[in-house]
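User: Sequence recovery, please. Input:
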């Protein structure tokens, strides 16, 4: 049973209700506009009957905010939890609330163009079925992936078959380089990202006013079958136009923004502009809490400026891959301008304050947004936050080190915690001071103290319970959906144990898109360096289905690969195999047939003996 909200949190929630413009109902009207219907019950199952999406679990998010949820986040969650088919304008429809993202249906001459088919086959299939229920059995004539994140392509097999695409009957349009970016982002640090994503999206949390209420960008992620089909047409130039089933589409490239490969596009016939994920009803992440490369707010703001200049006078509605549309030409220009100013302001002011000698942590506490941004609901930090975005900008330019030599070589968490606890006077004294901080409503200080304590005595019951209670209060106070989920997930693990990675995706179609080079990269990352220091291995890998050969060496604990002709005189062994069999090898399947080895087979065994798999259940809040 979760704690009740303390007096300090209740006071904060009441003050926020007075500080923000809760009487502005424009978003409520916009989120409900054009509603045509939904599934009843709003539950999606896979072929085995397991639930992969249940929108009804958020039905409790109605009325006034309880004191256990930040009222601004409660408002956002009410808006995001609305689900069903919506008419954007006559001819453009969206299914919202069936996954983390939206799927859009654009009616052309003979069929429908599908934009961003969600994460899972099952949710995409349910969305298409709902669209057809209301708009008729229009065939899918094309698909557009706006960018390289899985919630925008993973459900493709619920929309079209591989045969439809490979035959040329259903083209897939996407920004240049999307496949490489899509499959690479979660490969190199994929295990760690997936574990942290379980925290970020509240995957193990109960849906309730004392648990998960959403992630700000959407409620959470579906858990069905994800896949990918490579695009047949890659868009490379801003201003590039394509006519799809009689409908003209003009594209604007926006690489290096919310995703490494991303694009916007205009449908002139409908005077409708799709902004992918670069202008939504929240401050987005510059560094997502699950982990990723830091995004560039400077280029992000420039592409928003370009969108305004190119399309600002040609659009009467702007829609995106999350949230609800914005209607009206003047409203669109204002919305895109404020989104642009938001990212530009954070970038410029962070660097200004950096050049005055402030660190990322200091800037995050000191920076203030202009009143117009502070009071714009779509600029609030429900998914990204001013705090962690400022630190990301600092990291992008300055790195992890803040310049203070005392912070150049600190102890890692466990020995650091042990020293803090000893200096304060022992565990009991730490708990006493932390309890006083908790009682005073200084939950940040209590969490800092208890973090040191838990890394000193991880099984101490008093420490675990007070730490969990502290994280719960921090969750209750958080306006940011992913911060709330992180705090709640930490509290859950302190009380019930490590829940691992509950939403691990089994997506062989995505893994199949890895290049041979990326596969060897993943092997290199798996080498246990110290165990391999003294090894000297040279192998040739002949990829029989691609007519390519790679020399792979392991020396000094480093795996290096080079594409070159096979040379039995210098290789200890040659492995002949297909790329699918190499994928199986990388996954740990060493013994199955399909690999022909000539030469010294023990050389390959030597290599595999020093490969280690990632741990999808590593500890986060405990040592």
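Assistant: Recovered sequence (623 residues):
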């Amino acid at each position: 049973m979760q704690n009740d909200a303390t007096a300090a949190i209740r006071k904060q929630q009441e003050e926020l209700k007075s500080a923000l413009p809760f009487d502005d109902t424009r978003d409520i009207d916009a989120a409900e506009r054009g509603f045509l219907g939904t599934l009843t019950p709003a539950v999606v199952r896979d072929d085995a009957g397991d639930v992969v999406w249940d929108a009804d679990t958020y039905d409790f998010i109605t009325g006034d905010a309880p004191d256990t949820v930040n009222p601004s986040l409660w408002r956002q969650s009410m808006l995001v939890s609305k689900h069903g088919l919506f008419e954007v304008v006559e001819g453009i429809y969206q299914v919202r609330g069936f996954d983390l993202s939206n799927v859009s249906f654009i009616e052309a001459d003979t069929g429908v163009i599908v934009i961003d088919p969600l994460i899972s086959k099952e949710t995409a299939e349910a969305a298409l079925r709902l669209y057809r229920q209301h708009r008729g059995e229009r065939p899918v004539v094309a698909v557009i992936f706006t960018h390289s994140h899985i919630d925008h392509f993973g459900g493709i097999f619920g929309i079209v078959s591989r045969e439809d695409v490979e035959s040329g009957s259903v083209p897939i349009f996407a920004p240049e380089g999307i496949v490489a970016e899509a499959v690479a982002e979660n490969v190199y640090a994929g295990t760690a990202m997936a574990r942290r994503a379980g925290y970020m999206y509240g995957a193990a949390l109960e849906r309730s006013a004392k648990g998960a209420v959403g992630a700000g960008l959407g409620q959470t992620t579906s858990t069905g079958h994800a896949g990918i089909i490579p695009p047949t047409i890659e868009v490379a130039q801003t201003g590039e136009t394509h006519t799809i089933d009689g409908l003209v589409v003009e594209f604007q490239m926006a690489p290096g923004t919310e995703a490494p490969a991303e694009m916007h596009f205009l449908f002139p016939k409908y005077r409708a502009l799709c902004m992918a994920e670069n202008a939504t009803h929240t401050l987005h992440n510059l560094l997502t809490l699950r982990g990723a490369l830091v995004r560039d707010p400077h280029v992000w703001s420039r592409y928003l400026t370009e969108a305004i200049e190119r399309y600002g006078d040609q659009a009467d509605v702007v829609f995106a891959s999350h949230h609800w549309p914005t209607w009206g030409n003047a409203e669109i220009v204002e919305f895109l301008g404020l989104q642009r100013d938001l990212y530009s302001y954070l970038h410029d002011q962070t660097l200004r304050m950096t050049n005055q000698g402030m660190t990322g942590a200091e800037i995050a506490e000191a920076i203030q947004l202009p009143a117009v941004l502070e009071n714009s609901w779509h600029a609030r930090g429900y998914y990204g936050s001013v705090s962690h975005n400022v630190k990301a900008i600092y990291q992008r330019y300055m790195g992890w080190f803040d310049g203070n030599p005392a912070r150049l070589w600190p102890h890692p968490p466990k020995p650091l915690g042990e020293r803090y606890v000893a200096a304060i006077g022992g565990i009991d004294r730490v708990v006493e001071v932390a309890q006083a901080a908790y009682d005073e409503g200084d939950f940040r200080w209590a969490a800092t103290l208890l973090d040191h304590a838990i890394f000193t005595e991880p099984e101490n019951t008093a420490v675990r319970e007070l730490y969990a209670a502290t994280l719960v209060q921090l969750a209750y106070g958080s306006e940011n959906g992913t911060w709330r989920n992180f705090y709640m997930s930490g509290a859950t693990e302190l009380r019930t144990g490590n829940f691992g990675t509950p939403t691990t995706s089994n997506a062989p179609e995505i893994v199949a898109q890895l290049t041979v080079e990326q596969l060897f990269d993943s092997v290199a990352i798996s080498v246990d360096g110290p165990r391999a220091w003294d090894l000297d291995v040279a192998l040739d890998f002949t990829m029989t289905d691609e007519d390519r050969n790679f020399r792979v060496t392991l020396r000094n604990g480093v795996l290096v690969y080079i594409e070159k002709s096979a040379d039995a005189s210098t290789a200890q062994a040659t492995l002949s195999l297909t790329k699918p069999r190499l994928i199986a090898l990388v996954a740990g399947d060493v013994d199955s047939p399909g690999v022909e080895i000539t030469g010294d087979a023990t050389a390959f065994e030597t290599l595999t003996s020093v490969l280690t798999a990632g741990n999808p259940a590593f500890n986060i809040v405990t040592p």
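The chain is about 40% helix and 15% strand.
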